[in-house]
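tool_call predict_complex ligand=magnesium ion
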Amino acid sequence: MKNKFTIPKSHPRYPSLIIREGLTEGFKKGIVAAEGLIAQGRGEAFDYILGEKTLPPARKAIKAAAALLLLAKNPVISVNGNAAALIPKEIIKLAKITGSKIEVNLFYRTEKREKKIKDLLMACGVAHVFGVGKDASATIPELLSERRKVDPRGIFKADVVLVFLEDGDRTEALIKMGKKVIAVDLNPFSRTAQKANITIVDNIVRAMPELIKTSQEFKSRGEQKIKSILKNYDNKKILKEMVKIIRKNYVYEK
Ligand code: ATP
Ligand code: MG
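tool_result ok
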């Protein structure tokens, strides 16, 4: 991310401050919802505890996620305001490598914000953005929030959905529809993290470049090799490893 602001690179919290700036800029442009800034706060707290780096269990989850996206018949990347503000180019790169569609799906849905996100993604080079306005004409059963509205050509018929800063209810509903869900979520205790098939406990800003690199690498491998990565993957174990690291890092010694 470019530093268009005045934060000196030597500042000890430089990367974290750059993310904040990216989001507040996105908020001013009408891409990020006010609630998205609060969600960022929850994320920051967990990121601090994780040491603001991609930890080994997250790397294992990234490998499984790359494998699942490459093996999917109809993968979709679900984009909300925070993801659009922080990682637009990465979303497009990953979509190209894995043959994924890109769909806008907002908790706080307004057509104006959807269109702004669509325009931002198209300016970065996407040919089609699903789920905007009347295109989101299908419904995820049993879900009451605005996130129930999805594109019948996108998330509705997807077999694999990649989500960022997701809502636990929707993750559960997508899984009930028979889809596999990959979540990137800094909070290993959230319902999203607990319910997803693959949970990458990491900041989207760090996880995405790693996921792109891994997908690129795996693309040249044979299908059997990729399948074996998934076969040996256990999400509950990954989440347990993550919590173990948090506990180990933060034993308070008197
Ligand atoms: P759930 O509905 O799954 O239980 P929640 O209601 O606790 O989640 P929300 O406020 O709905 O959480 O969504 C924010 C989630 O996104 C939090 O778990 C937060 O840790 C995570 N998050 C925020 N910013 C980032 C980021 N940059 N990268 C990864 N995860 C993030
Ligand atoms: Mg929630």
